[in-house]
Amino acid sequence: QVQLVESGGGSVQAGESLTLSCEGSGFDFSIYWMAWFRKAPGKGRVGLAIIDHNGDASYDDSVKDRFTISKDYAKNTLLLQIDSLKPDDTATYYCAADTFGGTGWRDPGSWGDWGQGTQVTVSS
């Protein structure tokens, strides 16, 4: 059974950096595609970044200059580094996992497994 547990969120000041973690268990971390989404208050879940089973990453244009997705294969952990945080980054951040191959990855419905989310609040 796939389990994903996010951590690393918190309350930070604008301009600071934060690294979110998503620890995975119950699946072969090396063959799964994984992604980060976020959901801001009053908005839908938005895809931010995806990383494939080989470690190749793609980003939504809105975050590609400040967000870095990576996998720590030794710890079965997905990471998201966020630099130069802005108040607009305030949201609940979720990781997702699947073996579907990445087509339509921005659609939350494409992903079969989700973590519970970690809250990031950025104050100005």
Structure description:
By secondary structure, the protein is mainly β. It is built from no helices and 11 strands. Strands 2, 4, 5, 6, 9, 10 and 11 form a 7-stranded mixed sheet that branches. The chain has a 4-stranded antiparallel sheet with strand order 1-3-8-7, with no helix packed on it. β7 (67-72) and β8 form a beta hairpin. The mean pLDDT is 95.
Strand and helix map with partners:
Elements: E1 3-7, E2 10-13, E3 18-25, E4 33-39, E5 45-51, E6 57-59, E7 67-72, E8 77-82, E9 91-98, E10 113-114, E11 118-123
Parallel strand pairs: 2-11
Antiparallel strand pairs: 1-3, 3-8, 4-5, 4-9, 5-6, 7-8, 9-10, 9-11
